[in-house]
Write the structure tokens for this entry.
Amino acid sequence: MERKQIAEAKRIVVKVGTSTITYPNGKINYEKIEKLARILSDFQNQGKEMILVSSGAGAAGVGRMGLEAKPKTIPGKQACAAVGQGILMHIYERLFGEYGQVVAQVLLTKTDMVNRHSYANARNALQEMISWGVIPIINENDVVAIDEFKIGDNDNLSALVASLADADLDILLSDIDGLYTANPKTHPDAKLVSVVEEVTPEIEATAGGAGSKNATGGMLTKLQAAKNAMSAGIALIIANGEHLDILRNILRGEPVGTLFVPKESHLRFRNQWLAFGSKICGRLVVDEGLAKALRQKGSCSILPVGIVGVEGDFDSGDTVSVVDQDGHELARGMVNYSAGDVALIKGCKTSQIEEKIGYKHYDEVIHRDNLVVL
């Protein structure tokens, strides 16, 4: 994909980080939000279909309550989000309304994505809003989400939303210009990477921790989001949201930020759910040969002989993550055997499965049709 093709994107997700729409003290930056509303409304008037994923509810709650920092306890964080979400949506509603643009609040949790029917309902509702010309404004429902079922950060939420909505482009605006060859805060000679065609373990190793004190995500979550978007056939750009006119530059095809080039085709709906919606119940650790095959072939069945480790407590039919021996995620898929059975047959040939566990319903631990390579 070339930059000029970005200008042709029709359905676009824009994610704004906390640092983009608030001041360092956590209070709302009205000037930035007004400009964001104006730019997105203008794109909508051009015939594009815009979706906004907005951080900042927790920080807005901190500012309104006069707290020095975000609370560390879960109830405290949820209370801040409850206060801040109403503040944030009221501001968006008023400022988008100044430009005649209708917006809708959408709050999602991982629980909504785990059940395939709920996933389909969320997808259909989102598609309907877009068809009406509404700009959905999306955030995680932090008030009711618990850690086990949290998406966790709005970088990954934006990739999930882009997949749900069949978007062409996902733009992550943050307080960094894009992906660098090293951490620019500690390596002044680090260079901005303009285009990434594959998120390799070496690239992941350059990712640092979380950013500002009011933010949740860092470069690692952005790379995870990029991998998810690329696998779904969606282009993703990381850019600096300090000056929101950068959105116009991006959609003119100018070489700003870091472009993550998508794989050729969108995932089928079932595979979208496997990759992004279903609950991950465990991990299969595979040997170097199988890891190499997954990276090169794009997809192949997971046989017992290539498995060297099993983590978690999962049953047949659950979704698990497939990782290499360094812990880098390669794929996600639906297993044919329980964790206990896989632990007994790992490293074995298919002809040995029945001997080890007393039955053999499948040769594969994960069939290639039930596997999504990331």
User: Anything to note?
Assistant: The two ends are 18 Å apart (CA to CA). The longest helix spans residues 74-97. The first strand starts at residue 11 and ends at 16.
